[in-house]
Specification:
This protein has helices at residues 3-8, 17-57, 60-84, 106-125, 155-159, 218-223, 247-278, 313-317, 322-336, and strands at 95-101, 129-137, 143-151, 164-171, 180-191, 206-211, 227-232, 237-241, 289-294, 300-303, 309-310. With 337 residues, it is of the alpha+beta class. β2 and β3 (143-151) form a beta hairpin. The radius of gyration is 27 Å and the shape is flat.
């Protein structure tokens, strides 16, 4: 039994519900790696036994079965190896995926719609789920910007490979002269943060006020100064709590709300900065792309970071982008080590 399993079996485990849920989630993630390794070891042992038997008896059918099993084992091993690359702090989280039109006008809005379809297909094939958070249609066609909430294990870990500018070259369906056009769209991916503790608050930047709680709550909260109001001086954010019995509990609850609001503000500022940058043609244009999708005069999708490329452009646009994600994770691992 692992240390986490011993911890879960403790009679006091559920005294802190939030900590308990985090522990259970951590154990689930670890089992997601360890159990497949155990299965791989068992499969390898079986292959070795079958291989020895086939060699001793010179059984051609058994030898063919060994070759088949080795291929299957190799594919499973590659999947386990890929999962071990998703070890950064937020890789296991759900994700917010945003796509913004860049240089190219209507062409780029149509390109955003194509990328939206590509990622939707990937979500469906991978067993993830998605919901629409925000969308702004293009003036003539396509989508100017769109944000999706994608749920599933390691959604952010996989999708972070898509952050950057994507370039499309094709014969434009909007050009009556059938000329070749280049369009740009930017993809941004954020993890869905699960723990508000990740936002740090400087106590010196807080003004703390205590007062008597008002309204329903019984005699105790009304006759003591247990309610707490926190003001974050740099941002002007104000939160207050009077629902708990003690000043300490109310302060802790108020601090949790403050961190949540600060994270929300931080993400809104980031979104504003991204939107401003994406309105600049120099940002979503030449020299900034991570991947090129060329449909004319030849067919080629190439990732400019990893060098990964394929001529099967239709499969990529139909959501079969796992090979590019895997190439990115391997490239990133080499780069950071």
């Amino acid at each position: 039994m692992s240390a986490l399993e011993v911890q879960i079996s403790s009679p006091h485990f559920w005294e802190n519900k939030d900590a308990a849920q985090q522990t259970i989630k951590k154990l689930k993630l670890l089992k997601g790696i360890i159990l497949p390794l155990h299965e791989l070891q068992k499969t390898l042992d079986d292959i070795e036994c079958l291989s020895t038997l086939a060699e001793e008896e010179k059984d051609e059918e058994a030898e063919a079965e060994v070759i088949k099993d080795i291929r299957s084992f190799t594919q499973k091993l590659e999947k386990v190896e890929l999962r071990t690359m998703l070890g950064e702090s937020h890789d296991h989280c759900n994700a917010y995926l945003s796509i913004y039109a860049g240089a190219g006008g209507t062409e780029s809005c149509d390109w955003v719609a194509m990328l939206f379809r590509m990622y939707s297909r990937w979500v469906e094939k991978g067993g993830f789920t998605q919901s629409l958070i925000d969308s702004l249609p293009g003036e003539e066609a396509g989508i100017k910007r769109i944000t999706l909430h994608i749920k599933g294990e390691y959604a952010y870990g996989y999708l972070k490979s898509e952050i950057g500018v994507h370039r499309l070259v094709r014969i434009s369906p909007f050009d009556s002269n059938a000329r070749r056009h280049t369009s740009f769209a930017a993809v941004d991916v954020l993890p869905e943060i699960e723990e508000e503790e990740e936002i740090e608050v400087n106590e010196n930047e807080l003004r703390v006020d205590t007062y008597r709680a008002s309204g329903a709550g019984g005699q105790h909260v009304n006759k003591t100064s247990s309610a707490v109001r926190l003001t974050h001086l740099p941002t002007g954010i104000v939160v207050q709590c009077q629902s708990e019995r003690s000043q300490h509990q109310n302060r802790r609850m108020a601090m949790s709300m403050l961190k949540a609001k600060m994270y929300q503000v931080k993400e809104k500022e980031r979104e504003k900065e991204l939107s401003a940058a994406y309105d600049e043609k120099g940002e979503i244009a030449w020299g900034h792309q991570i991947r090129s999708y060329v449909l004319q005069p030849y067919s080629l999708v190439k990732d400019l970071r990893t060098g990964k490329e394929t001529g099967n452009t239709q499969a990529i646009l139909d959501g079969e982008i796992d090979e590019f994600m895997e190439a990115y994770l391997k490239w990133r691992m080499v780069k950071t080590n």
